[in-house]
Design goal:
Strand content: 5-15%
Strand order of the largest sheet: 1-2
Distance between the termini: 33 Å
Shape: globular
Order of helices and strands: EHEHH
Largest sheet: 2 strands, parallel
Number of strands: 2
Number of helices: 3
Radius of gyration: 12 Å
Structural class: alpha+beta
Length: about 70
C-alpha cells in the first residue's frame, strides 16, 4: 500500500525544471527520493549542471550522475 512506502522507494520527475533544480533538490535532500528532471531550454540545462557543481551535495550529485537532466 502507499502508506507502507519508504521515502527511498519514491521517484519523482520534474518537467521544465529550470536552471535552479529546486524541486529535485528538495525531493532528494528533504525526502530521500530519486529524482529525474527535464528542461527544453539548453541554456537552463547548462546553468542547472553548473549549479550541481556549486551545490556540492553528494546525494544530489549521485542522483544526477545516474539520471542526467534531459532535454
Amino acid at each position: 500500500s502507499i502508506f507502507e512506502l519508504k521515502s527511498t522507494d519514491i521517484s519523482g520527475f520534474d518537467i521544465c525544471t529550470g536552471a535552479n533544480l529546486i524541486y529535485p533538490i528538495l525531493g532528494i535532500c528533504a525526502k530521500g527520493w530519486k529524482m529525474a528532471a527535464s528542461e527544453i531550454n539548453i541554456e537552463a540545462i547548462k546553468w542547472a549542471n553548473d549549479n550541481l557543481i556549486v551545490i556540492d551535495n553528494e546525494k544530489v550529485m549521485e542522483n544526477f550522475r545516474n539520471n542526467p537532466i534531459r532535454q
